[in-house]
Amino acid sequence: MAELIKMPRLSDTMEEGTVAAWFKKVGDKVEEGEILAEIETDKATMEFESFYEGTILYIGINENETAKVDAPLAIIGDPGEDIDSILGNGSKKEISQVDEVIDSSVNSENSEKINDSDTTSEEDVHVITMPRLSDTMEEGTVAAWFKNIGDSVEEGEILAEIETDKATMEFEAFYSGTLLHVGLQEGDSAKVDSLLAIIGPNGKDISKYLNAPIKKIESSNDVELPEIMLESKKVDQVSENKSQITQVNSDRIFISPLAKKLAKEKGINISVLKGSGENGRIIKSDIENYKEPAKENISEHSPKSTLSSEDFNEVNHSQMRKVIAKRLSESKFSAPHYYLNIELDMSETIAFRKQCNAIPDTKISFNDIIVKACAVALRNNPSVNSQWFDDRIRYNNFVNIGVAVGVEEGLIVPVIKNADKMTVADISRSVKEMAGMARDKKLTPEMMQGSTFTISNLGMFGIESFTSIINSPNSVILSVGSIVEKPVVKDGSIVIGNTMKLTLACDHRVVDGLTGAKFLQSLKPLIENPLSMLI
Predict the structure, then answer these.
(1) How many CB atoms lie within 10 A of CB 408?
(2) What pLDDT is attached to residue 135?
């Protein structure tokens, strides 16, 4: 069956997109996961992959053409399949977003009733689906609702917080009206384009919009979706049944989505907890370490419970953890990794950092120096500043360095754009700002896109050396160990020195051993003598 591909919403503010390049043409076969096109949004140019297998039967937007989100982009199906019924009346290209959540089992009469003109022009009923808030997002979790069923909603108001694979982001309403239906409860997850909510006139019968099954993949509980109740009293009852875990508006308790989900599963009242995160935010460890107050007046003759030898706790995968698992598995098992190791003399680097930090309002780290050195070395070694795609290798003329940051639920990589053009102090400020936003889950998708090189530093944890998995589609990743004081040989004498080990993981499809070795050879003197970067 032919499938209509629409212009995707690749950022939370995207309203239209431009096709920068097509990698497939009409008649070409497409596999699920293959890159179809590059889409230029208001924030970045991103690759857009196919979610279906088949043959390209139709391309609705040519290269360099711009169209609204949800405009027909392409059709994938079987060769010779009739696509007129999908496109509509000849040249008609606007197809309602509602169609995406209507199952094929819904009869044609109902389908005709909920086309775009009916819902937006005559009835003002708007079906809201789970948005794609990042280029890698496949599913989302509702972290919090800011509106209840029956509440009035204005265009631009925040409806909910959506947890993606990369961050928790506010999702605003694009329509005004009354919130008539909520398709996902707090803590529930669903695929992109699943039914999220319905907004329309107060008291409107929306039963026909609920015929399609929700593409729901997991839930924090087994409660069925509430029926739509049009009378105001019943609407209030539905609102009262919402989870008591999260306080909203000014009384809201600051808690991470994962911690909130765990608390709900364990029946813990979060109002009695004291958060150990930033600004008192309750995090996962606060829930895991919480102990119920001891109960009084328990008889010493009461039977003692026996603990099972298989006692354990289970936690559902977060969106971030799922994507980390998927992307790193794909990288590890598709890119042939090999590793190069060098050891640096950090004596001059230590002295340089000490001098810099003596300047008022200046505080740089060793990692900031390494980022700058890598940026300079990449500019001089463009073969390493490259990316692998199935049909080509891209050699980038800009240097964007991703800095891996560990957060509560996993690992994210904010990107320092054009790092080769920044000073060490500029890099330091940017890294600190992004690391703080990463821990607070406030990074936007564009802040985590477009890296050409990645650095992972575990030196501050006393790790002397380690290897990392390449952050695809980049060709290399640099692992940075700790600075170790030990005996070294200098000018034929044994002295106390300070050394640091670096490990460069390379994708052999792009970076050969000699290429990787030359990069480390040019990187070594830059880190060992940072003053050379200023000349």
Answers:
(1) 17
(2) 56
